[in-house]
Amino acid sequence: QVQLVESGGGLVQPGGSLRLSCAASGSIRAMYAMGWYRQVPGKQRELVTGITNTGRTNYADSVKGRFTIYRNNTKNVYLQMNSLKPEDTAVYYCHADLLTNFRRTYWGQGTQVTVSS
Asked: Which of 53, 54, 102, 113 is most buried (most C-beta within 10 Å)?
């Protein structure tokens, strides 16, 4: 059984910072890309950022220069969010492309980020 467990969400004022963490556990044979999506009510889930197992990254235009994704090992991914704006308010979901008995994408349960004064 594979799990992605997220932490680090919360309430922050505009201009503030948060760091999200995601840890993968279970019978994992190989890890590939990991990343973060976000979703607000009534809208589709959107890609925020991703990182491959070789360290290549990509970012949504709306977060470039403010958010940084990094991995300290193959099973943990982090999202450092700086200069937060009210429009960053959303539920943030970790995702991971990994191999157990077969290769597929897994999702975390989501963590709420609220940017408000």
From this structure: 113
Amino acid letter for position 65: G
What is the DSSP-derived secondary structure letter of residue 51? E
Instruction: Please report, for residues 36, 95, 99, the alpha-carbon distance to residue 29 in angstroms, rounded to integers and kept in the order given.
Output: 21, 16, 5
Q: How far is CA 15 from CA 34, 51, 85, 108, in A?
A: 26, 25, 6, 26
Residue with tokens 């019978």, as numbered in its chain: 27
Q: What angle do CA 27, 29, 31 make, to 5 degrees?
A: 110
> Any idea how long the chain is?
117
pLDDT, tens only, 52-105: 989 999 999 999 999 999 998 789 999 999 999 999 999 999 999 999 999 999
